[in-house]
Design brief:
- Helix content is about 65%, strand content about 0%.
- It has about 400 residues and is mainly α.
- The chain has one domain.
- The protein is globular and about 60 Å long.
């Protein structure tokens, strides 16, 4: 273990000790925003008490007990298997669970940055650039602040890449379910996984994913069938996310065309699916994920019908890749850091200065990151630009 990893883990455990110390004295709940973690924690509590974790009245009742002030609850929109992923935190009191989950996600981002930096061929002596860049990436900060499970999606992505490289099919299947905690984000992942498994005759990861998902749903039905039934009922009866003006190209298209039908927001995603299927009929190499991961992420996030600014944390591999290019030749590639900084400055500036600000104004960000990635790739044709062992 090198000095960088030792330093990283010392920092993580120091933060853990600090937060646990404060939690024992009841300070944590007041210092950390309730955030989206509240919906996961309260849904898990309701699930364990044999209630409906997707019921607004039950969610409101338990959320008000831990400090929610508004008259409407933080609704649970994640699929039922998210409840199982969050169950270890659900068993703890809210303040302690919130703090430990924060530390857990900090560890995921730190590990992801280190892993990606190495895989992209970054110098170990400059690893700090990747770690610092990961934590200064605005979506990372927002996701940590909100207690969002999108960081678990990022963790699942990193685990999937490792599993594919090492042929750990069980881990790959579990990682696939973690990516499906927010299935609309990297929506092209499932299409490419299906065709890649077929083309290279590697079905075991996909079989494990299906088996584990079926097992998870079975456990949910045995412990509390209201979880699965409540999720289905909520999707059928509530407009939910269809009412949200999220920073996605589909919503921007809907507003630009003044179209009433919400189906317009699915047009970019549908086009991306068609493109992905057409591409999949070409030969998909064994090292497909190493070579095309970032493009899959960029195309998915540019065309997803629902996302928030914090969800762009799954684009961290793209950011780390560009920072590796910067580290190879800072005098020539200074523009990469300048461009990344400008993108984040623009997000903050619009949030504080535009009247009637809405996150939909940020729909351009994935396209801007794509432009930085494309130009960086074009000007830095080096062998270390792929995720290869």
């Amino acid at each position: 273990m090198n000095i960088h990893r030792i330093t990283t883990w010392i920092l993580i455990f120091a933060l853990a000790a600090l937060f646990v110390f404060k939690t024992d004295r009841g300070y944590l709940a007041a210092q950390i925003d309730l955030g989206d973690f509240l919906e996961y924690w309260s849904a898990g509590r309701i699930f364990l008490s044999d209630g409906n974790p997707y019921s607004s009245s039950e969610l409101l009742r338990i959320q008000q007990r831990v400090g929610l002030q508004r008259p409407s609850p933080a609704m649970m929109w994640s699929p039922p298997w998210a409840i199982l992923f969050m169950l270890p935190f659900t068993l703890l009191p809210f303040g302690i669970a919130r703090g430990i989950f924060l530390l857990f996600e900090i560890a995921i981002i730190a590990f992801a940055a280190c892993r990606l930096w190495t895989k992209f061929g970054g110098s170990k002596n400059k690893l700090w650039i990747g770690v610092l860049g990961a934590f200064l990436f605005l979506p990372s900060l927002l996701a940590l602040h909100q207690g969002q499970i999108n960081i678990l999606v990022l963790g699942g992505l990193i685990a999937f890449l490792w599993a594919i490289e090492t042929k750990r099919n069980l881990i790959g299947g579990l990682a696939t379910i973690a990516i499906a905690l927010k299935p609309h984000l990297i929506h092209l992942f499932y299409i490419f996984l299906l065709f890649w498994s077929w083309k290279v005759r590697r079905w075991r990861t996909l079989i494990w994913a299906f088996t584990l998902l079926s097992f998870s749903i079975s456990i949910l039905c045995v412990i509390n069938p209201k979880a699965v039934l409540g999720y289905i009922t909520t999707l059928e009866t509530s407009p939910g996310p269809l009412e949200w003006l999220t920073p996605s190209s589909g919503v921007a298209l809907m507003l630009l065309t003044s179209s009433e039908p919400n189906l317009i927001r699915f047009v970019p995603m549908t086009a991306a699916w068609i493109l992905a299927i057409l591409l999949c009929y070409r030969s998909l190499p064994e090292a497909f994920w190493s070579k095309y991961l970032n493009l899959i992420l960029l195309l998915s996030m540019a065309t997803t019908p629902f996302c928030w600014t914090s969800d762009w944390v799954v684009l961290l591999p793209v950011v780390i890749q560009t920072l590796v290019w910067f580290s190879v030749n800072p005098s020539r590639n200074w523009w990469i850091v300048a461009a990344l900084g400008f993108i984040q400055f623009a997000i903050i500036f619009t949030a504080f200065n535009l009247p009637n600000y809405n996150e939909v104004y940020n729909f351009w960000v994935p396209f801007a990151l794509w432009a930085v990635y494309w130009l960086g790739n074009k000007t830095n044709r080096i062998k270390a630009n792929a995720l290869s062992a």
